[in-house]
Amino acid sequence: MWALSPAELAVVLLSLKVAACCVLVLLLPAIAMAWLLARKQFWGYAVLDALVHLPMVLPPVVLGYMLLIMLGRRGWVGSWLYEQFHLQLTFHWWGAVIASAVMAFPLMVRAIRQALLQVNPLLEQAAQTLGASPVRTFFTITLPLSYHGVLTGGILAFSRSLGEFGATITFAGNLEGETRTLPLAIYSLTQSPEGDAAALRLVILSVLVSVAALLISQWLERRLLRSQR
Amino acid sequence: MKKWVWLGLCLFSVYAQAEDKKIRVFAAASLTDVMNVLVKQYSQQAGVQVLPVYGGSGTLAKQLEQGAPGDLFISADEKWMQYLQDKQLVQVSTIKPWLGNRLVMITPQNKPLTIKAEGATDIDQQALGYWCTGDTLSVPVGIYAKQSLTSLGWWEKLKKRLVSTQDVRATLSLVERDECDVGIVYASDAQASHKVKVAGEFAESSHVPIVYPMALLPQATAETNAFYRYLQSAETRKLLISFGFKPLFND
Asked: Using CA atoms, how far apart are residues A4 and B39, in angstroms rounded to an integer?
């Protein structure tokens, strides 16, 4: 009774795959954007800052719809992708990754920016007076000192992706085995007449997955702190 | 002191609104266009405000089960009506089969296809790409579609590329946008959009009959009852037919 059915296992694995890819995809752009917002002053700063934060305040359906218009098979970018590479993002699990990545981007940027702001600029200057290039300084001084921010950002993005519903169902659709992640599977079941018990199982499962993700992140954080001392 | 007066006024206005007489109609998504016209006509004629709520029949039934304020429920299949009847949430004596419909395959307008709904058709050959329809567990159009696909022996082949949507209108818009190559919708939906073309029709024997039953909910008032009778009158018959439905009532 407690064993997972193959269908349930597939849903969980798909959710984890989408969430993990979401974090990997975001890592570089989020670090770059966080660095830009933390260290640079430029014309249009406020606009860029607002744009980055937009997914946090917009309803997810709106974002899903914007993605559909842009990346759908008839969209500006989507039609090109389809013609060149025969790639259709809607109903593809990469579509789910993109939807949740857009939603998670501001969370990750905020966490990393906060950490970058706490790095003592004197340490960076010291490295540069000793002959390190700005790039080397960033990778050997700034980034290692803000690892906790990257970690927090990654965890936030992972969790956001696990829970993402609105943008995913609007843009990536609800295709079993491809884009039907945990929240979408729960939604589908709650809509069906005999689905309540099965939905409850998935609800419990999603709580367990989230708690496990949180515990692992706490353990990682503690290890990181110890290694920094 | 003044603050409290304002707060009181605000609360009062909320209650005052709740007291307002409106007929709330919970109707299957496929009825959207025709119901909008019916509601407008009736509101002008009878001077009563009718508020339609559209969605997948299952979504609506579950909302009503959880106490959503509704007066009239129109489902796109008998299963969801039965669901509310079992929970004693509708007035059983008022359950009436209202409309019938047909099940068709559609494609985006610029990619027309002809698909014969026969067991001999090799569906992997004729219509590659994604197929969309309502969720096959809960949304009526999806439930009918699964029955037809199964009886034709297409289900196993199509399962992997069948996209579920929350209601039939979501399927229609995905096909209009050319995200889905083929959609399974009602004939009335295909007729409602000029951006799609009918590719084929499923035999009526391949699925349980498509029936839209309607029923009054326990809290329905005399005004709702009048609207309920209006929907089954000779006046509305022509309009319903023009939208592609088949009236099942006797007026």
From this structure: 48
Q: Tell whether A192 lies on the interface with B, counting CB pairs under 8 A.
A: yes
**A173: chain B residues, CB-CB within 8 Å:** 163-165, 174, 179
Sorted by sequence, the CB contacts under 8 Å of residue B183 that are 6+ apart come out as B105, B106, B107, B131, B132, B133, B171, B172, B174, B175, B196
Helices A60-71/A93-117 angle, 10° precision: 120
Tokens of A178: 């491809």
Q: Which residues of A touch B165 (CB under 8 A)?
A: 173-174
Selected residue of B81, B158, B164 to mutate for chain A interface (largest A Cβ count, 10 A): B164
Closest CA to B133 of B99, B83, B183, B173: B183
For B183, the 3-state DSSP assignment is strand
Please give the backbone phi and psi of residue B235, each rounded to the nearest 5 degrees, phi first.
-60, -40
**pLDDT, tens digit, for every residue of A97-153?**
999 999 999 999 999 999 999 999 999 999 999 999 999 999 999 999 999 899 999
d(CA B117, CA B217): 39
Please, are residues B33 and B169 in contact by the beta-carbon 8 Å criterion?
Answer: no
Q: With a threshold of 0.90, does the pTM exceed it? A: no
What residues of chain A, 150 to 179, have a C-beta less than 8 Å from chain B? Answer: 169, 173-177
Mutation site for B-interface testing, chosen from A70, A83, A93, A191 by largest number of B Cβ within 10 Å: A191
Is the confidence metric ipTM above 0.90 for this complex? no
Instruction: Note the pLDDT tens digit of each residue in A166-188.
Output: 999 999 988 888 999 999 999 98
Nearest CA in chain B to A187: B166
